Amino acid sequence: HTSRALTMRLIFWLAASAALSHALRIATHADPRCCGCGAVGPPQGGWASLLRSRPLVCSEVEPAALSSSVKIKIKKPSEAATALASTVASAVAEPPVEAKVAIKVRTKTPPAESLGGAEVATGAEKKPPASPAEELLLAGTQSANVTKMLEALQMGANPNMLDQKGRTPLHFMAGVGLAPACMLLIHFGADVEARDNMGFTPVHMASGYANAQTLRVLIAAGAQLDVETSQGTPWEVVKRLGEYQYKEVWLKRTDKWNKLKKTDDKLEKLKACALALDDPQAVKDEMVWDDMLREVLSLIKL
């Protein structure tokens, strides 16, 4: 009994779906007329056309009659469209234009050997390799070894050799604070006025690193003290460093983070530099160059 009821419900649902589909088919056409016979509404044989298709055709109408009854109107193109079409047609009819493309290929300049030994000018001079004496001087400068430096200078090393930043060994020794090395370099011809790529002289290096002893050696050798750079003169460098050290370190020595309690070594060194720069003549009168040089040489031999 239950299966029969379900079957009846299924048949009823299918019939309702078919009726709904038929109604939708008719409703989708705004003017349900046969284009062959002119009949209104679906005929007894039904429509011969598909769902939503146009035009609607009765099933009784012959295909030949349908083809003769259907008229298609083609709108005449405008004058602008006709002119555009003729322009395109003439452009297509013209022969293609040949275009020439010039391609430049860069080739690398062959080495001198491939040119039969001819030299090729590159616009930059190749730096000659360092001599054994200069290699020894470089090693002595990097390790702050005065004995190696003296040996290299006695072998004929150039005391004014430059690094990539344009600094000489005297720049480094002045900044490190090794006064005996500065005296040896100056004795063997080092330029006390040499400037690096930023314009700094050995005096600037000694002042910037607060090395009063090397600064006094340079003053005794006659170095200029008023050379201007982006950081100012040596005196201005020392003054600026001293003011910072005094305000930011010495006056804050009672703070918990500050380990400085009684003395400030850097401030004392800057003070000594300032005194030497302030009265260079007193430094020259106090320091006798020949006596200092003999003392340095005797210490090296020991």
From TrEMBL:
PROSITE patterns assigned: ANK_REP_REGION, ANK_REPEAT
Segments of this protein annotated with the region Disordered: 111-132
Signal peptide: 1-23
SUPFAM superfamilies linked: Ankyrin repeat
Keywords, in A-Z order: ANK repeat, Repeat, Signal
Start-end of each ANK repeat: 165-197, 198-230
Tree of life domain: Eukaryota
Keyword Repeat set for record: yes
Name the UniProt record assigns to this protein: Uncharacterized protein
Organism listed in the record: Calcidiscus leptoporus
